[in-house]
Predict the structure.
Amino acid sequence: MSAANVTRTQVGIVGAGPAGLVLGHLLHLQGIESVVLEDRSREYVEGRVRAGVLEQGTVDLLIEMGVGERLKREGLVHHGVELRFGGKGHRIPFDELTGGRGITIYGQQEVVKDLIAARLESGAPLLFEVEDVRPEAIDSDSPVLRFSHGGEERELRCDVVAGCDGFHGVCRPAVPDGALSFREHSYPFGWLGILAEVAPSSEELIYCHHDRGFALHSMRSPELTRLYLQCEPDESIDRWPDERIWEELHTRFACEGWSLEEGPIVERGITPMRSFVAEPMQYGRLFLAGDAVHIVPATGAKGLNLAVADVRVLADALVRWFSTGDDTLLEGYSEACLPRVWKAQHFAWWMTSMFHRMPDDRDGFMARLQRAQLEYVCSSKAAATSLAENYVGLAYLSAPVDQIV
Ligand code: APR
Ligand code: PHB
């Protein structure tokens, strides 16, 4: 390989999703060099419709990092959420229950666009459409990322590698067999999601429990509504013409005095529901973050926020290590993240279990338990507070047990 094709950096970041881009920017702000490698095109990552709920802590961090200008202008701040069951809506007021905290609706791809713009403006390297990324020597002091770009074979020598390459990435599989343990849970349903060009029918999100299955009303802007329906896990989108989607949405959301507005469907897709955690989140000089190391079902709206929280911890640890040589935080990365990861995992599982029709619930036992839980959440301040504080987001470093706050 010619010398020109061998480069060096402090942190090699694989993946330009929220995890990789936030990490790259946090490091840049602290004067630490990184190179971000992304296998898709810029257009693809900027156009991919994903999650849309930002916790207060995520919003605060993006603003602190200097990438929150458009978010502050265009993000929709919500102070509560509606839980709908038995054909009636019940509001959970986040602000009253959490000392004024809330969530902001702002599409993940908008966050990604803002971060890409900031990265390009900083001049720090971000390569799109790289191919065949191979993390090597990750258990040595000088890990290497080999890849090809523009038809040329390249080698990036790093001090550490950050695997921010999502669930189907190459970093987690680069860890030798047996070094990580995996825990996972699959749910017997998926979500059919649509984006419709119509004003939202409600100011806040609606999580809806119905005998025919879960439905969710969300939004992206005053002109764009995002809607989801529980469907079969292996559902084919071809079986859902527009009329069927709208009819099913009307049925599940039915509520006196409320109607769902229809509009042209501009995007549609099926999302599987899965819980997955790999532990520890590091091996040698490879640090995994975001979807590369954990997946949560979308019901808790935690995926993006967990990814951001991981890299916040990782960036602090890397800054400490590069500036002082002290590796305590870096060695403790996984241990610092996992309590929050598992709490989010539990919250997402709990929300999922409370709202979805269970296919094997022959006599309706599970449905009755769900109704009891929903009624409890909507009538007990303690239960409503538990939902609210998890939804707006727990602290990114977990409080010690025994210290009840
Ligand atoms: N080489 C380079 N890049 C890769 C590779 C690879 N082999 N494999 C995947 N990628 C890229 C993907 O194209 C994507 O842009 O890594 C990026 C991973 O980004 P995300 O999947 O968005 O994951 P993350 O940054 O952890 O953010 C988590 O994404 O899936 C949603 O709901 C989830 O909101 C959560 C968020
Ligand atoms: C979304 O707007 O896409 C969304 C909102 C809440 C969720 C999941 C997805 O729980």
